[in-house]
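Dear support,

I submitted the protein below through the web form. The confirmation email said the job was done, but the results page showed an empty box. After a refresh the structure appeared. I'm attaching both so you can tell me whether what I see now is the final result or a partial one.
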Amino acid sequence: MNIDEIKIGLNTKILGKEIIYFSETTSTNDIAVKLAKNGAEEGTIVIADYQTGGRGRRGRIWFAPSETCILSSIILRPSLSLKYINILTPIAVVSIVNTINSITQLDASVKWPNDVVIGEKKVSGVLTETRILKNGIDFAVVGIGINVNVSKDKIPLEISEIATSLYMELGHKICRIHLFQEIIRQFEKRYLGLNETTYNEFLNEWKSLSTIIGNRVQIESENNIRLGTALDIDKNGSLIIKLDSEDIIKINNDDLVKIRNIK
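What the results page shows now:
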C-alpha cells in the first residue's frame, strides 16, 4: 500500500495526517501501541502489507496473506468520557460494514462484538487496545484487519468454513487503497461527531447492522455451554441475553466467552 496514494483524496481532519508503512511487521497494533506510549499524535496510522504476529480478540491469530489484506492500526487520544470507551470498536466495525456495502454492493453485517461477516463467514475484525490513566484515557489503538483480495486457495483449510474475502464474494479484486480511504473517512466522521446526543443515534445504527439481536445464540465458556436468545445491546455495548432458564444476563465484549448464532 502506497502512503502517497492513500493520502491523495483522503480529505480527513486528523486521521492519516501521519501514516507509517511496513512491508512486513509483527503486528500493526504492537507498533502503534509503542508509538502511542512515546507520544505519537492522534490520528497516526500504521499500515502493513504482511504481519507475522497479527492477532484478534481473545488472542486468536489473524491470518492474512501478503499484499492481499488491509492491516492497519489507528492511534486515538479521545477526550471522551470513560463510559464511551467501548464504543470505539463498534465505530470501526460499522464504518467497515457501510464501506463494504456501498463500494461492493455486498451485504456485510456486524457480528457482535467486533467482527464483520458476509453471510455466516468472517471478512473483517477489529481489535481495540487502550491505556487508561487516573485522569482518563491516555490513548486507544484501533486495529483493523480486512480480507480483501485473498483467494480461496490461500485460506487455510481449518478456517475455510468460517472465513471469506471480498475477492471470494465478488469474483474479482478491488482496490485496497480506495476501500481503506473510505473506511478512514467514515470512521473519522463518527468519531469526531460522537457526543451525548449522537451516541444513541450511533448505538441504533450499530444495532440495525447486527446479525445477533433477536436470534437464538449459544454461549460457550471454559466449563459450560448455555443457550438463549439475544435481546438487545445496551448503552455500554454489552449483549443482553435471555437464557432458556429465563435468566437475563449481560455479556461484555471482553468476557472470555464465545457467542455464536444457532438455527
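Response: this is the final, complete result; the empty box was a page-load delay. The chain has a mean pLDDT of 90.
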